[in-house]
Write the structure tokens for this entry.
Amino acid sequence: MSPRKSAAESRRTRDRIIDRSIAIASVEGLDGLTIGRLATDLGMSKAGVLGHFGTKETLQLASLDGASAIFSRAVWEPAAGTARGLARLRAVCEYWITYLEREHGAFPGGCFFTTAAVEFDARVGPIRDAVVRRSLLWRRRLANEIRYAVNAGELPPDTDPDQLVFELIGLYTGLNQAIQLFADPQAQDRTRRALTRLLAPAPEGAR
Amino acid sequence: MSPRKSAAESRRTRDRIIDRSIAIASVEGLDGLTIGRLATDLGMSKAGVLGHFGTKETLQLASLDGASAIFSRAVWEPAAGTARGLARLRAVCEYWITYLEREHGAFPGGCFFTTAAVEFDARVGPIRDAVVRRSLLWRRRLANEIRYAVNAGELPPDTDPDQLVFELIGLYTGLNQAIQLFADPQAQDRTRRALTRLLAPAPEGAR
DNA sequence: TTAACTTCCGACCGATCGGTTGCTATATTT
DNA sequence: AAATATAGCAACCGATCGGTCGGAAGTTAA
């Protein structure tokens, strides 16, 4: 009807597109996301949507970026104020649970990255690469925090950071499944129970 | 070209379709599976493929059934000969690792059910229902075996079977990701390390 | 006040989607 | 041998896919 086009307006439109794109993709997958559906949802034309990105793939990558920011804001940043080491690790894990919750969670269709990772884990291309990069970044952040906690004597000195990261990732993937597939109300508690074992403090007298 | 049509021949064709369908869906997802691609791969016409099932959804459900049989044959049946309880549980877990392996695993694109579960965990409909049913069945089987092991005194008496199932599912989802997304050669060992803790026998003197 | 640029739309493109129809060739039943 | 049933094909259906194009409306820079 009436094209609006100040620079600020344009950026707001772009953000609206990405927000909606993330919401759709968290349910239908990044591939199930279609330009037509997006345009209808936003009351725009397909050309208007695509004009901001040029290509569906670019839009998908931008959505990944956007989802990344949401994850960071929901899980990492709130814990940044907590003291480094085990305390921050525990805070991160608690925010991570909230982030995955069905009602108050960040995404309507469950963790965006779990969906994207499974969707693209057997394909090749830039999207898979981007997913891998993001995942590795997160794993590295976790491992760093764990290493710090070990060095501070808060976790047992024989802790293998990568092993712990491996088990944490699995735990939270399982939590996501329990919430999304079974709507299991106990899932959060089960996760916390597993965490108390995984993040058990080192016995007194270490270091 | 030349229609073949004995009853046995027809069933073999149906099986061929399902086999290929499973292979495709394990990579592209059950939704990414298309009749046209399937027909091309099999050297058939779309109508010839669809004639066996009537509907894409029916084909998807049949593929789920087929994948279920493969899983059972790869993970459950080989362990059926082992003594019930902890021994069988450990056997199942070992076969489960093999089943997920990149080279010798059952599916080219990683665990069919992990893919399907994540793909449909935020949707409604018969496919989601079928996935949920299969998953619950597997969880129940595992829980039963755990319960048996607890009653036999092989696992600590305070073991919560559902909690252990929860952690096992997470562990193997993580293993699938580590294999598919990162091709991590240590993933199997990490899984076994986690298992030795999760399936640690009860201390002597229990029961 | 222009001139250049940008946002967005409507219309359109070839390709592909799931699915239908009419038919032929073969198997099976009678 | 005749009648019936079925597997599979070619051709086609409307819908939708990602994407292109030219122009209209509006902003920004000169």
The first helix of chain A runs from residue 7 to 32. Chain A has a mean pLDDT of 95. The two ends of chain A are 70 Å apart (CA to CA).
